[in-house]
Each structure stands twice: as structure tokens, then as C-alpha cells.
UniProtKB/TrEMBL annotation:
InterPro entries: Acyl-CoA_dehydrogenase, Acyl-CoA_Oxase/DH_mid-dom, Acyl-CoA_Oxase/DH_mid-dom_sf, AcylCo_DH-like_C, AcylCo_DH/oxidase_C, AcylCoA_DH/ox_N_sf, AcylCoA_DH/oxidase_NM_dom_sf. The lineage of its organism: Bacteria, Pseudomonadati, Pseudomonadota, Alphaproteobacteria, Rhodobacterales. It comes from Ruegeria marisflavi. The keyword Cytoplasm does not apply. This is Acyl-CoA dehydrogenase family protein. It comes from the Bacteria. Its cofactor is FAD. Keywords: FAD, Flavoprotein, Oxidoreductase. It holds the Pfam family Acyl-CoA_dh_M. Residues 131-207 form the Acyl-CoA oxidase/dehydrogenase middle domain. Belongs to the acyl-CoA dehydrogenase family. SUPFAM superfamilies: Acyl-CoA dehydrogenase C-terminal domain-like, Acyl-CoA dehydrogenase NM domain-like. CDD domains: ACAD (cd00567).
């Protein structure tokens, strides 16, 4: 490997688990990267089930969640999820992928014992996928990066709530067994758990997008008078935005972990190619224009890794980590975009083919710069914090 992954400050238990995940992904999952069941809207359900069965047999299903229901620390989780990301299919196989990983974290923190038994236990076992219904179509004037614009409503009706609205970019809705639906009530934002498929949750279409690693793709969904029992509300009425923050910081960071793993692998492929490919009497890597790009990759990969572990330590210290995860999301996604772009450039024509995963990683990282908040929204939020802090300092 041309990049040495961090091992300091991580327990022996977590390191051993991470090593097992890496071996499993490299030896068992990677051969599926050219499987014909990979499509424009992600791996097929058949392929997903096959990969999860292999992970289950290897004892690596949802490896970051322990047998007693506990969770690895964020630093330990980073060691595991980075390695699961060494293949675009690794997070799917090990059930560490989005949106499931973030949804499991949220349910573990907020759900009632009954809801955990009904939904979370099946998710941890890899028996079903989930979806998170928050973003709304721009043409409706609904919520995107600004969730306060939410138009989806929920109205109490006896011991039930009735939910109505439209959602978009809903990852994995097609084929999911459970959904977390955000809607607005008089009390404020609320979250509900719904069994899927449901006749009142209709997929209008699955969009064609630049990325293709997530089963079910990204859907536009109509929620038409969905009637749910009150006990399927997640937590308390009006607390939906606060719960979204509980989910958001770790979920942003998990994205960084997984895609860091993918870019480490893309870098390995580029290093291998440029050492073997000859041009003008010597290997490509001996040409400074190529070798320097790979050297820059090493620096960006290490800086991204350090940012991941720094943010993980902040979350492990008990902080909410919203600001830190914003910084990590921007810094890591932008660094990994540079890495993926250089890998593709170094490999020339081979880089833009589907013969390796480099082309896919490039596409996936480009999408990563947008989802969970585009770079510009995070910078805007950070600038607002700088202004607030300055104003507070001027008026103690």
C-alpha cells in the first residue's frame, strides 16, 4: 500500500476489526466491482443481498455496532469505515453505508425501546435498508440546504398523525424497508418512522445522477395523507430539527471516512498504473508532471485523514461537533476531489474507462461535495459563526 493508515490512539480490538474489514473488502468484495448487476441506480437488490450474506458469514455485518448494542467510538469507527470504503461496494456489504449508518445512529440515540426492537434491530442485522425523507423539490419551494423551508406537514388526528408533502433526492427509497420522514407541525419539525413500501408513500421517479454506488438511487417521492400511529413518532413533537443535528455531525463524518477509503484505493491503482506504464523511455511516475501529482495525493490523503480523526475526537469528547463536522466535510471532500481528479489524470485514457474504479470514485466524490450540504453552505455557516463570535467579543 502506498498510503499508511493511522493506527495510533485506536484500541487493539478496533484495529483487529478494521484489519478484518480491510481483508474482507480487498479479497471478497473487490471481485464484485465488475458484476453485471451494478446499474445506474446502484447495485441491484440481488447483489446487495449476496454481498451482505458474505459479510454476515465473515462476522462483519454492521461491524461498528457491538453485539451488546453499543457503538465503537468515533475514532474507532473511522478505522473501520475507512477500510470498508476501500471498495465502493464495501460499505454496502458491511452495512456501513449511507443513509443506513446515520439512521442507525439516530435511532440508537432517540428511538423508544419498542421502535428500536421493531426497526433498529432489523437494520443492525442487515435485514433491511432505510431512507431519510427530508429534502424537498426546488420547484415546490421546499426545504433543501435550509430545512426551515420545509413544506411537508403533519397534523394530529386522534391517536394518529397525518403527513402530506413531496420529497426529493431520497437515497435508497426504492427498496427500503423503513423510512424516517421529517414534517412540520404547529410545535415545529417532527420525525416519524414508517414501514416501506407503503401505498401512501409513492415513488414518482428515480433520478439519473452522477453517482451510482447506493442501492435504490435517489428518488422523488409523494407522501399522500400518510396516516401513522402517534407511537411511530421518533422522540417528541417539535424536536425534529434537534434530532437532525444529532444525526448530522456523525453522518457527515462517516461520509468522509468511507470516501477517504475509496480515494486511498484509487491512489493505489494510479500508483500501480504509473509505475507499469511506459512513455518516452521511462515509467510515467518518473515524469515530474505525473510523479508530483501522486506526491500531492499523499499530502491530501494524509491531511484528510487527520481532519477525520480530529473531528472524531471532538465528537468522542462529548461535543455536538456541528462546526467541526462542517469543517471536516468541506476540507475532506475538497481534498478527495483533488485526489480523485489527479488519479484519473495520471491514468489518462485508462482513467476514464470502467476498467478500474477510478472513474467511479471520481464521480462519487463529485457528488459527495454536494450531499450532506454543499461546500458553499458549510462555508457560509462557518462565516456566520465567525461573525457571531466577533459580535459577542465586542459586547461581552
Amino acid at each position: 500500500m502506498s498510503f499508511t493508515m493511522e493506527r495510533s490512539g485506536i484500541s487493539d480490538r478496533a484495529l483487529a476489526l478494521a484489519d478484518r474489514v480491510e481483508t474482507f473488502v480487498r479479497e471478497t468484495v473487490v471481485p464484485f466491482e465488475r458484476d453485471p448487476r451494478l446499474g445506474a441506480h446502484g447495485p441491484s437488490e440481488e447483489l446487495s443481498k449476496e454481498l451482505k450474506a458474505l459479510a454476515r458469514d465473515a462476522g462483519l455485518m454492521t461491524p461498528h455496532i457491538l453485539e451488546d448494542g453499543g457503538h465503537l467510538t468515533q475514532r474507532e469507527t473511522a478505522a473501520v469505515l475507512i477500510r470498508s470504503g476501500l471498495s465502493p461496494l464495501g460499505p454496502l456489504a458491511c452495512h456501513t453505508c449511507a443513509p443506513d449508518e446515520g439512521n442507525m445512529y439516530l435511532l440508537g440515540k432517540v428511538a423508544s425501546p419498542d421502535l428500536k426492537e421493531r426497526f433498529l434491530s432489523r437494520m443492525i442485522a442487515g435485514e433491511m435498508r432505510s431512507a431519510f425523507f427530508m429534502t424537498e423539490p426546488a420547484e415546490d419551494g421546499g426545504a433543501g440546504s435550509d430545512p426551515s423551508m420545509m413544506l411537508t406537514t403533519c397534523v394530529p388526528d386522534g391517536n394518529h398523525w397525518v403527513i402530506k408533502g413531496r420529497k426529493t433526492y431520497i437515497t435508497g427509497a426504492d427498496g427500503a424497508g423503513m423510512g424516517i420522514v421529517m414534517a412540520k407541525a404547529e410545535e415545529g419539525a417532527c420525525m416519524f418512522l414508517v414501514d416501506l413500501p407503503h401505498p401512501n408513500v409513492r415513488i414518482e421517479r428515480v433520478m439519473n445522477t452522477i453517482d451510482s454506488s447506493m442501492p435504490g438511487g435517489h428518488a422523488v417521492v409523494t407522501i399522500d395523507n400518510l396516516r401513522l400511529p402517534a407511537d411511530q413518532m421518533l422522540g417528541d413533537a417539535g424536536e425534529g430539527f434537534r434530532y437532525a443535528q444529532v444525526r448530522l455531525a456523525p453522518a457527515r463524518l462517516s461520509h468522509c471516512m468511507r470516501w477517504l477509503g475509496a480515494c486511498i484505493r484509487a491512489h493505489e491503482i494510479a500508483v500501480n498504473y504509473t509505475n507499469r506504464r511506459q512513455a518516452f523511455g521511462k515509467p510515467l511516475i518518473d515524469h515530474e508532471g505525473v510523479g508530483f501529482m501522486l506526491a500531492e495525493n499523499l499530502m491530501d490523503l494524509k491531511q484528510a485523514e487527520l481532519m477525520v480523526y480530529w473531528c472524531a475526537d471532538v465528537l468522542d469528547g462529548g461535543a455536538r461537533g456541528t462546526v467541526e463536522s462542517s469543517m471536516a466535510k468541506v476540507a475532506v471532500s475538497e481534498a478527495l476531489m483533488r485526489v480523485a481528479d489527479r488519479c484519473l489524470q495520471c491514468m489518462g485514457g485508462q482513467g476514464v474507462t470502467g476498467d478500474t474504479i477510478v472513474e467511479q470514485v471520481f464521480r462519487e466524490i463529485r457528488a459527495f461535495r454536494i450531499y450532506d450540504g454543499p461546500t458553499e453552505v458549510h462555508k457560509w455557516s462557518l462565516a456566520k459563526k465567525l461573525k457571531r463570535d466577533w459580535t459577542k467579543a465586542q459586547n461581552p
